[in-house]
Batch of 3 targets.
Target 1
Amino acid sequence: MSIFSPTMEMGKSNLDSEMEFPQDFRCPISMELMKEPVIISTGVTYERKNIEKWFFSYKKKTCPATMQNIVNFSVTPNHTLKRLILEWQNGHSQSSSSSSSPSPSFKRDEMVSLLKTLGSSPFKVKSLKKLKEIVEIGDEMKLDFIILGGLDVLSELIVQILLDCSDFMEFRACEEALGVLHHLITLEHQEDGKVIELMSKPECMKSIAIVLQRGSKEARVYAISILKKLSNSNFDWNVIVKDQGIGMFKSMLELASDEIATKTSSSAFQIFIKILDSSKKSRSKAIEAGAMCTLIELLPDSNRSKCEKILHIIKLLCECADGRVAFVDHRLAIGVVSKKLFDVSETGSKICVKILWLICSFHPTEKVLEEMMMYGAVKKLVVLLHMSGQSSMKNKVLDMLKKHGNSWSRYPCFPNELKEYLCLHLHS
């Protein structure tokens, strides 16, 4: 009969994460305090549920700690160790509730143990979750993690999914590894360069792009935050755009459209701009991913900051032929950009003029010119002529009016005073 009652088990369970328990009380697989310790044929003690999962769920035929081959898979309760754990818990529960957080040296020892077991343990996710909790404590723990070679361990786990991204456990381990990396990128120290170096590895970046597309919501947020950190470096984005471009852009557009997670949405837009700015080859893939359609439909209800980012991306896409075609093919495009011409900011107005100028220069179809008139863009362009001094924006306005003023003046809705103004101005 077990010496533990259910009530006692429940009463002690909440203490496990708070107490500094001896190494011998840890399960070698999960590194957690054991509640049902059992001995296997090699003489090593494990938590029952962990070793049974190792044998019967993962079909392993070795001892996780010693890697000896196993023939006899039976387990025997370790009552002595269980009694010692209970006695130790009872003796420390009082002091544990009033003591401060575990000492840095204890946490460092725990980190060492976790990093050692990650290579052989099938329970990588649990170990990575614990590592994430430790590095969250502060910069001291983050630096210790890097000094102990933690970045190399993360790198191996992250790129593993490139071999087989259908392996659920490997994929989950990669997601958790990104969670640890996500907390390391906040480090303000010279070691920060090592984190950037890890993230910049082509294989690592390809894995991050895969998680961005197929990962859980939390993991995708990790991926976006890592990519944002990388956007401040001189990384060659073609490394991932070439292989993962279309799928990656679709995922980024989905995150950018999130109206609840505004920080993630803003980061997605910033990365989008950085990639398109640094690599013209990426623009065709972004267009193929449906970027133009998504951005135009997001524009009407977006706030000022978001509008500027969206307009900037639309402008970048319109600088290539495919982007201009996608723009004029969307029935709302001229209308929403015309409306935003004065409604966002001075920066927003300049971008809107650049977009309309690109369209008027390369796609001045009758439909485009008519929509610019009907949606009020032409009237707003004329207002911009009253600006004092010269500017690139004013030059673009004049260029559009010189080229298409005659076409616009033929519309019945074109005010007579504008006809006179244009006639005088364009012949002056």
Note: DSSP finds 23 helices and three strands in the chain.
Target 2
Amino acid sequence: MHRLLLPVAALLLVAACGTTTGTPAAAPAVSNPHTGHSPGSAPPPAPLRDGERFVDLALPQPYTPQAPNGGTDDYRCFLVDPGLSATSYLTGSRFLPQNAAIVHHAIFYRLDPKQATEAAEADARTPGEGWTCFGDAGVQGQTAWVAHWAPGAGETLMPAGYGFSMPPGSKLVMQVHYNLLETGTAGQTDRSGIQLRVAGGTSSLKGLTTDLFPAPIELPCAPGESGPLCDRDAAIADVGSRFGADAGQQEGQLIQGCSGGKVRPGDTQHCDQPIQKPGTIYMAAGHMHLLGRAIKIELNPGKPGAQTILDVPQYNFDNQALVPLPKPIAVKPGDTVRVTCTHDAKLRKLLPQLQKLPPRYVVWGEGTSDEMCLGILVAAPA
């Protein structure tokens, strides 16, 4: 398996992730869809497997999110050290959002020693806990996505015999997306943490990778809606003003890579991307924001032997998890992965978080009021 081959490899959500395979969650009631996070207490972890131990990490001090540039979203990165003195494998994780009212998602990136030094410097020169990091870990070079959490997810266990390689001295960046759209969230603090499930290098586990497959979003304003941001160019410029120039270019890069530069406005968008290296897919998730209706990930659609990796015809933002496939799926060079998402601009008038915002032409963006279409696959290279 290969990481995303388009120029947007650094999209790294990124924004959250996942939803279940198998039996999808029921669609939210039309009168009150996607109402927000469901705090609740996290269920206890599963028993440790042979060779595993728990490593508990948390923010040393509470952090008070502050959305920059007039927005309502704060992406904050925190450097955390699991204290690994020998080669290890990350075989599971259980993120513990201390303030679920404002935590939209969390992603954990493994850093090499040079990146860890760079991250420590960014932390040191930034007031307060952590540093701002829209879209990625905020350090140079490729980082490995080794864990994540989104609403509805509990403990995530890697398949028996597999894990993410953690060389000695590996450190992690914990990227947390804070959403401040809800009334009363301004000034609230968070001190989230994570319980890692770690196995020693002598366990002879096989390594895993997380591979990302995005598609563009070209969702016009709903019938009857109007305003300056219903203009596509104005909406893209607004994304760039809130999250930086790179964020403002993401939709254009997706359009170039997925449809040869042709913009096709509509509720449903897809993107086909080739596999360049052989491997086996073990887990899958899909990610959209509050206007998401359905997401599907397919292998070789329209060809003999085509398979559906993930199909969620009724997407629920508050029920997201990375889950094992019923049966692992082998892939090879020349195969194609297609991700397809359907969004619904009419939901904007039904969602408490979005009702107070002006109508907009929705494109790919980091904010909760923007959208994403992302397939997430955990695979073992051959």
Note: The chain has two domains: 9-208, 210-381.
Target 3
Amino acid sequence: MCSIEYDQQLMEDSPPPKHLDVPFFEEALETALRTSRAQIVGIHCGIGSCNGDNYCSKIYRVRINYKRQDDESPQKEQQLALIVKSIPRIDNVEFIEDLQVYLKEKCTYFEVLPRLELLMQCKVRFGPKLYQCIRLPENALAFEDLGQLGYVMGSREAGLDEEHCRLVLERLAEFHASSMVLAILDPKIMEAYGDGMLSPKCLQEDRMLMRFFAGHGQQLHKLVSRWPGYERIAEKIEKYLVQQREHLVRSQAVMDKEIRVLNHGDMWVNNILFKYDGKKQVQNAIFIDYQMSVWGSPGLDLNYFFYTSLELDVLKHKRPQLLRCYHNRMTATLRRLDMGVPVPSYEQLLAEVHRREAFGFFASYGILPIVSQDKAQTSDNNLENLSDENFAKQKAEQMFNSDRLGEILRFTLPHFERAGVFDI
């Protein structure tokens, strides 16, 4: 049996992931090739992402060198590239288990996404292929490496321009629309997606996630209280924070007579990969990380994306055009699939987005401060550190000192006030 070679950076940053052993990669290779007639001759494992880019998991980039025994030229060495996502078990980080992130992601990649892609006649891909997964001793999933197909990540610090946003919203509309059809064909399939990031179970007062968002709320109030002309908004934020947990739960909770889709649940820049042509024009987008997916209003994904991932100028001036782009693609997709799913009107879509502005407000102070940080400040951002109250408080103070964050909030907070987010 061959051994695994680890690169120097991985060895320096942390102990090698012993749960990712040769049998794990043998299973992944068999699934990827759809044959057991292959022999691994070498495995190389390295760090797969920059520190601070992934908060719930460790990412490894793996290369498997192998020879096929059923080839005409069996001596020819070939390579399979994998991205392995490992979710460590950390004390005091209960929401990982509460949300069943491993089970949810496994079911999504193995069952839901392939069926959605079949509905789309395999002309669209909604995610990478999942080749292998284990639950113990750590949750771990091995995916195809989309980097080998030319996909790269956008800039979370700068946000996305209009061209990238249009592409994302077209793909998101197809994902949402096809999930509506799948729910008609298999009504029980969405039962696993009842709990999202802001479910009551995850936001218990004494747990890490609620403490984290509470700290962000306090930093938001502290920041806005210093801005001339924002006194009224600062007052309203202070009142909002008195019942912050209730407001957060309500912002995601299912509402009567709403449009319902499978939401990605964590739709921000780092969970979207882009592909470009030779002239560096963006051609395609594909989503990753479905561990927070939730069944509910499309207004959840749309508001979350708008308030975490757009260039400020795009958010200020192109929001109606982007919503129209999303609606046009959703309409075209539902009509093409022709399964009797009612096509929402544009006015219905706007109403869904408006009803979920509170979720957008949450994204703007609970998530944007994390994802808009300069990379030089994110090397120590991980769940283990953020579960420490003193570290989380110091990190929140650092996040809310960002010039970009302040500029965005000066625009978005008056918008949320006009939308009635604070008048609950």
Note: The chain has a mean pLDDT of 90.
